[in-house]
Design a protein that fits this description.
With 295 residues, the chain is mostly helical. The protein contains 15 helices and three strands.
């Protein structure tokens, strides 16, 4: 009888915590060797891909129910010819703050470190790095895509060559990152010459940045023949190019219409006042930029 009561009595011990499969393995740089096995790397990569696609598919249902947000999160898919750049930006900002996506990004870093530590430059390494670069560019995470780009072009490419189309794609990403995010035009032109990269979009982007041509820059961003990763990389230069547009307006006009100011800066009037701290005054639908000096 006592034994029967003991069996029926519920245990007071807490069940062991459920550990996320992506968290079970640590960083190679911290001494964890769990990902040095090729088979483990391949299984881990499949888990990362599955988790990423599940996140994209379920985020709209978890956070919002409207169709517009569903379309927004769908723009984070790896379709390189997605059309809505603004929706991709909104989705990336939302995803970056989600703990689930932070776990995925950290898992990508663990896998990258393991591939480097195991000196792997085969087809699997190439496929993994291509996936990580495209994904983290969409998410606006240079800490992930920049070192991955360098390793893909400078190491993996020599062991398992990229196709000519892949080379153009990832050299292009490298040039866009150098010019738009790092503001290093010398390096961007050097890489373009080194890889003999001929791309009208790259040439027009570099021209716009060097000459501070806001209109050309925005036209290139909106061009239909580009992919969403390139446009995401160009976003890093948005603030700098808008500053140039504001400087041009200040030096060129005493007053101008509000509509024209918004067209030139790509920002609504209230947002422009708040973010750029301009001292201009709005009188009706006219923006007073400078006052005439009294003689």
């Amino acid at each position: 009888m006592a034994n029967q009561l003991q069996r029926e009595r519920p245990s007071r011990l807490k069940p062991p915590p459920c550990i996320d499969p992506l968290d079970r393995i640590g960083l190679v740089s911290k001494g964890d060797k769990g990902l040095l096995s090729y088979k483990t790397q391949e299984d881990y990569f499949e888990t990362i891909k599955s988790r990423y696609h599940t996140f994209i598919d379920t985020s709209d249902n978890r956070n919002h129910s409207d169709d517009d947000f569903a379309t927004t999160f769908a723009s984070l898919s790896l379709d390189r010819n997605a059309t809505s750049i603004s929706r991709t930006s909104v989705a990336a900002q939302t995803a970056a703050s989600d703990p689930a996506m932070s776990t995925i990004i950290m898992a990508m870093r663990k896998l990258r470190e393991a591939i480097v530590a195991s000196c792997r430059v085969d087809d699997f390494a190439k496929e993994t790095y291509i996936f990580i670069i495209r994904t983290t560019i969409l998410l606006g995470h240079p800490e992930s895509y920049h070192p991955a780009l360098l390793h893909l072009l400078h190491r993996i490419h020599f062991g398992t060559p990229l196709s000519s189309e892949e080379t153009r794609e990832f050299v292009g990403y490298y040039i866009f990152d150098l010019a738009c995010r790092q503001h290093d035009f010398t390096a961007a032109f050097r890489v373009r010459k080194m890889y003999k990269c001929s791309s009208r979009k790259i040439d027009m982007t570099l021209t716009a940045l060097v000459h501070r041509d806001w209109f050309l820059f925005q036209n290139v961003r909106r061009s239909a023949n580009g992919n969403v990763q390139e446009s995401r990389l160009m976003e890093w230069a948005d603030g700098r190019m808008t500053d140039y547009a504001v400087q041009c307006l200040e030096k060129s006009y005493l007053s101008v219409s509000k509509v024209y100011v918004e067209q030139c800066t790509g920002m609504e009037w209230d947002k422009l006042k708040e973010q750029k701290k301009v001292s201009w005054a709005l009188e009706g639908e006219t923006v007073m930029i400078r006052q005439m000096k009294k003689r």
